[in-house]
Amino acid sequence: MIKDVSLIIPCQNADTKVHKLLRSIQSWEIMPNEIIVVDSSMNRLSIPKDIEAFTKKLNIKLLIFHEKNLYPGHARNIGIKNSTNTFLAFLDTSTEPTNKWLSSGLSLVTAQNSEGVWGSTFYQADTFTSKIFRACTFGAKPIKTIPGTILNKSIFNICGLFIETTRAGEDGDWMSRAKLQRIKMSSPEEILEYDQLHFMSISKLIKKWFRNYIHTAKLPFFSAHKSYYYYGMSFVAVLVAYNWNRVLAAWDRDSIFFIPNITTISVISILTMYILIRGIILPRKKGVSIGFIFPINFILIFLISALLDLTKTVAFGYSKFFKN
To answer: What is the pTM of this model?
Structure first.
């Protein structure tokens, strides 16, 4: 069945993935009558004859826009501006929707009289390394994403378009604006799958984290205050502990205020709390199983998480000193 929906797909140097996604549309319960691919590759995207044939046969309008080196938000905006339908659906080349994704989303919008339905993405991890990376980052629960989202086009008159000048964070920024404007959105029933963690190495992960947080740190919706509070409170705690016995007990071991090894105790306490939070508490909150965390994986999860936190902190500092 064909519905009046515009499907918008940004892509960059991902011809094979785009072809796979476009071919999968033939098996969907409901297909869009308009597909807009915004290609920001160095070389223009080619469309195989079988894809052209099926879209022509079903009278699906297939539009390809090519402009080099676009950021995701800019590419989506081109799709939005050139769409002709009331409802817009968003995918990207690294997420795989179910055959029921579009039909389920449209049914929810109708049944709940909402303005759209959020995307929901599950990050696949089948190898030990990818599971560790997932535990340190996205977690084992589906998370809300722009890919998979279906929206009434009129929402963009209220919330505005995506920020075009940032490589990452434009999705979170737009979702925060939708929340601020109290846009009525439905929760999805169908989950998209993301499989790129399988191809991730620690060096690639760190580079991605640094790149993304340099861009994200500059956006209005994002706040690094929680991280700064933790580091600041930790520094104050160590400073107080270091001076405790000198100020309150005057180094008198018989004083009721004298605490032996207080600086060491405070440092160990802060480190222990950090290990518990990053190695156990946050992964559990994100759906990582106890069986995977224990008996020793929490150590590796903590070490990689600490490295990513350090990368994030450096990115924050870099973005402050090099704002332009």
So the answer is: 0.85
